[in-house]
Amino acid sequence: xxxxxAKTLRDLRSLLQFGRVMVTSNVCPASIRSAHSKIKxxxxxxxxxxxxxxxxxxxxxxGEIERLHDIDQICFPAxxxxxxxxxxxxxxxxxxxxxxxxxxxxxxGFAIGHIEPRKRAHVITxxxxxxxxxxxxxxxxxxxxHEEFRGRGVVLVELEVDTANEAAQRFYARLGxxxxxxxxxxxxxxxxxYRMALLL
Length: 200
Ligand SMILES: CC(C)(COP(=O)(O)OP(=O)(O)OC[C@H]1O[C@@H](n2cnc3c(N)ncnc32)[C@H](O)[C@@H]1OP(=O)(O)O)[C@@H](O)C(=O)NCCC(=O)NCCS
What we know:
alpha+beta; 6 helices
């Protein structure tokens, strides 16, 4: 039997045919060595700080409004996108939770949620720039919002989505949101919205 320590990710994977493994793509040799020592348990988790091409979710920092505004302008038609003033209002709200997603040091998306009375929360916006879509950025941002909501005792999350925005409806449905009432003329009387809701 080969007793040499695993040195590469491929070595590790081949040793773990029967294990349950969660590995990130930038596993360093030290992590592999430490995982190797736990192989007997056949359950291994290797958690790493995000590498240069992974998504980092963090709070919004002062001075990032321009970048967020630019992304919002790209993500929504002009009549739906927020002005700087609106965005500042939502970001500065006393109960706001504000998260950005960064890849390789660049902000590629953001989400804003507000805590509301009676254990409720509202998703104000979720924006992922087109080049970063379908890479789980939106899901990671929503997960971060949900975690904060849960930590503050929220049990019901609501949001509105354009009736024509089927991509977002599918996205939210995959996260467990259910389609609710139709809100006619919700977006400046130019288009309708569905309310969607999730029990956390
Ligand atoms: C909706 C949005 C936030 C999704 O962000 P994203 O980072 O691409 O989402 P994810 O990669 O986490 O997608 C997770 C899943 O949601 C579903 N989904 C996401 N985008 C979809 C699309 N365009 N069509 C169908 N399903 C979609 C898929 O099931 C996807 O999983 P898959 O890629 O394995 O098939 C993004 O498309 C966006 O910013 N759109 C413009 C703004 C907007 O509509 N915001 C939400 C309304 S408030």
